[in-house]
């Protein structure tokens, strides 16, 4: 018999060749005797030409295939590459997709949630689900039938930190002047950091009255998100014209070094804004506030002004309005005021006052 048990699997596997065709995969049992019986049955079926087993694939080969066909073409390619690497390292590169179930998944999830947030762990599980689904539906490979709802961890609604009006005033008081336009743009549009600091002039269409951004999506190359150019944004962006040939938002070099001469303007890098931002927050006495909270602030303020979650969904570019629902708290003040007014009108005192007014009017 040619059954064996891989290092990273609790189950015995089979591997044999019949008439030039190789048959290999998991027997689905931790018992060697049962595995040998399973393999003997498969040999008989194969010899009779009755075997209909699907081909099998290891996780590392599936991850590489998924990367080449799907992930590398997406805007979220770097994130997916990182997640695929974590999955291969945690579950084992040589593990068969058929064996990724039960205890193996439970151990992986338990380990990862001790290292990263539950949300990050779930995102890795979602990538694994997409790989396995493609393997089964497109590649015709045998995969484990996982009940993904049992694998996913419960997530909190998410952190929403809003910049108050007083905090905003203090922030701009201590923020470098060359960062004002960038921060005000983020507060108004709610775009993500990468879209703000890498915004280029070709993306700004003054004639059409829109800004075109590429945002993360499963669509190859990402998805276009449109931001309307309201008069205030036109004024803000127009003031930045002439500072740089390509990028809209730039910073002024304070201390010249090498090619970066003093007082020249250069585009922001992914992390080049951090020191100035951190110093401004500290000087302004603003605690527990991150750059991404500018996006939360824009969403919350827009919801208060519009009283419409669909408007905020469109502003932020959310596919699912359930993601936008985290900002619903912004309407609670108005709901509370309406409730208080209703209760006041229908209280005994309110009814009495209303009847008294009615009698006076008739008289």
CATH fold title of the largest domain: hpI Integrase, Chain A
Radius of gyration: 30 Å
Beta strand count = 8
Terminal CA distance reads 106 Å
Sequence of strands across the biggest β-sheet: 1-2-3
Instruction: Give the fraction of residues assigned to helices.
Output: 40-55%
Descriptive overview:
There is one protein chain. The chain is mainly alpha-helical. The protein folds into three domains: 43 residues, no CATH class; 93 residues; 168 residues, Orthogonal Bundle (hpI Integrase, Chain A). The protein is 49% helix and 9% strand. The protein is built from 16 helices and eight strands. Strands 1-2-3 form a three-stranded antiparallel sheet, covered by helices on one side. Strands 4-5-6 form a three-stranded antiparallel sheet, with no helix packed on it. Helix 3 packs across helix 5 and helix 7 packs across helix 11. The mean pLDDT is 86.
Short description:
This protein is mostly helical and 363 residues long.
Topology:
Layout: E1 3-4, E2 13-18, E3 21-26, H1 32-47, H2 59-69, H3 77-91, H4 102-113, H5 118-137, H6 148-151, H7 165-174, H8 180-189, H9 193-197, E4 204-205, E5 210-215, E6 223-228, H10 231-238, E7 250-252, E8 265-267, H11 274-284, H12 293-306, H13 309-316, H14 321-324, H15 332-346, H16 348-362
Antiparallel strand pairs: 1-2, 2-3, 4-5, 5-6, 7-8
């Amino acid at each position: 018999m040619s059954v064996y048990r891989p290092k990273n699997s609790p189950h015995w596997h089979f591997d044999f060749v019949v008439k030039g065709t190789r048959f290999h995969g998991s027997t689905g049992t931790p018992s060697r005797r049962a595995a040998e019986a399973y393999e003997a049955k498969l040999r008989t079926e194969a010899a009779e030409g009755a075997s209909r087993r699907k081909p099998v694939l290891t996780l590392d080969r599936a991850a590489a295939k998924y990367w080449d066909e799907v992930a590398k073409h997406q805007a979220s390619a770097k994130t997916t590459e990182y997640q695929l690497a974590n999955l291969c390292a945690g579950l084992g590169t040589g593990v068969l997709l058929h064996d990724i179930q039960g205890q193996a998944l439970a151990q992986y999830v338990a380990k990862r949630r001790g290292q990263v947030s539950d949300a990050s762990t779930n995102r890795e599980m979602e990538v694994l689900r997409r790989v396995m689904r493609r393997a089964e539906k497109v590649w015709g490979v045998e995969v484990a039938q996982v009940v993904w709802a049992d694998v996913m961890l419960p997530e909190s609604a998410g952190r929403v930190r809003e910049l108050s009006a007083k905090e905003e005033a203090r922030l701009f008081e201590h923020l470098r002047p060359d960062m004002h336009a960038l921060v005000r743009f983020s507060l108004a549009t709610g775009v993500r950091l990468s879209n703000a600091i890498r915004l280029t002039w070709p993306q700004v269409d003054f004639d059409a009255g829109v800004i075109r951004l590429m945002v993360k999506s499963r669509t190859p190359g990402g998805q276009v998100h449109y931001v309307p150019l309201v008069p205030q944004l036109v004024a803000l962006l127009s003031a930045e014209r002439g500072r740089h040939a390509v990028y809209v938002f730039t910073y002024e070099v304070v201390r010249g070094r090498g090619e970066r001469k003093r007082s020249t303007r250069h585009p922001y890098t992914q992390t080049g804004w951090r020191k100035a931002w951190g110093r401004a927050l500290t000087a302004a006495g603003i605690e527990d506030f991150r750059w991404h909270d500018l996006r939360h602030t824009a969403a919350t303020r827009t919801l208060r002004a519009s009283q419409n979650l669909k408007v905020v969904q469109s502003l932020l570019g959310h596919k699912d309005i359930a993601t936008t629902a985290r900002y619903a708290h912004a309407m609670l003040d108005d709901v509370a005021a309406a409730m208080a007014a209703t209760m006041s009108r229908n209280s005994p005192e309110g009814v009495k006052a209303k009847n008294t007014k009615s009698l006076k009017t008739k008289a």
